[in-house]
Amino acid sequence: MLNVAVLAELVRSAQPPTLLDVRWTLAKDGRAAYAAGHLPGAVFADLDEDLCGPPGAGGRHPLPEPAALEDALRGLGVRAGHPVVVYDAGGCNPTGAAARAWWTLRWAGIDDVRVLDGGYAAWLAAGLSITTDPVTPEVGDVTVRPGGMPVWTEAEAADPGRVLLDARILPRYRGEIEPVDPVAGHIPGARSLPAAETVDEQGLLRPVEAPGGPVGAYCGSGVTAAQLVLALHEQGVPAALYVGSWSHWITDPDRPVAKGD
Q: How far apart are alpha carbons 78 and 90 in whole angstroms?
């Protein structure tokens, strides 16, 4: 993680990091938010188009093909050996977009990537300048080498010998509501840990209770769950991501569905 004061110095330096604005919601309004104002030098990265594969049998936000991801990252100006900083809207209800971008780049073999703690909201709260000027980056030369982060399959997520954390809000975990996917409920054996519990009232990352044993996270489509992986990573606890998450789990009607606590 990187705080706003440190990032402000880096942005003003002779060698600023590659800065990616990955603001995203289910309404797909990130590009409009970027156009209305963004950090100086930031390039807009479309979570759906640039950092994920097309929705389908693998879920709503599956892993991208390595070649497609490499082309997208180069188009965003990501360079080999050059640091990357990602940010999203921030706030006390994290979408997980910056965390998923961080996770995807690390999965792709890019180690020097950090998340702006508190996101765009923290930058504004600090009184730092923004711009509406679009940024056209020079084409990068990064090479994608998959495998840099642990990924769980549906079988591993269902293994009772592992700890699976559900990052969705409690009503979705309990199966009381399901505003996005066609089936409500959760993977049997999963524990609820809403992503909002990883941040404080200002949207800054805070410690969470780390379970023992092999741990992984899921959500609706593998975006919000990356917030749990990031929070545990910052505490020195490695965690896997079930990328397909609930939207993949329910593609097989033979997979069991649990409801309640």
A: 23
Span 195-207, mean pLDDT? 97
**Catalytic residue numbers, as ranges:** 219
Q: What backbone torsions phi and psi does residue 43 show, to the nearest 5 degrees?
A: -105, 140
Distance, CA of 17 to CA of 56 (rounded, Å): 34
Amino acid letter, residue 214: P
Own/partner contacts of 170-175, CB < 8 Å, gap of 24 or more, are 170/194, 172/220, 174/259, 174/260, 174/261, 175/257, 175/258, 175/259, 175/260
* Displacement of CA 7 from its chain's centroid (Å): 19
State how far the Cα of 88 lies from the Cα of 138, in Å rounded to an integer: 22
Instruction: Using a cut of 0.85, tell me whether the model's pTM lies above it.
Output: yes
Average pLDDT value for residue range 94-122: 98
Element (H, E) at 115: strand 113-115
Q: How much is the average pLDDT of 31-51?
A: 98
Q: Please, are residues 183 and 132 in contact by the beta-carbon 8 Å criterion?
A: no
Residue 12, both tokens: 């003003």
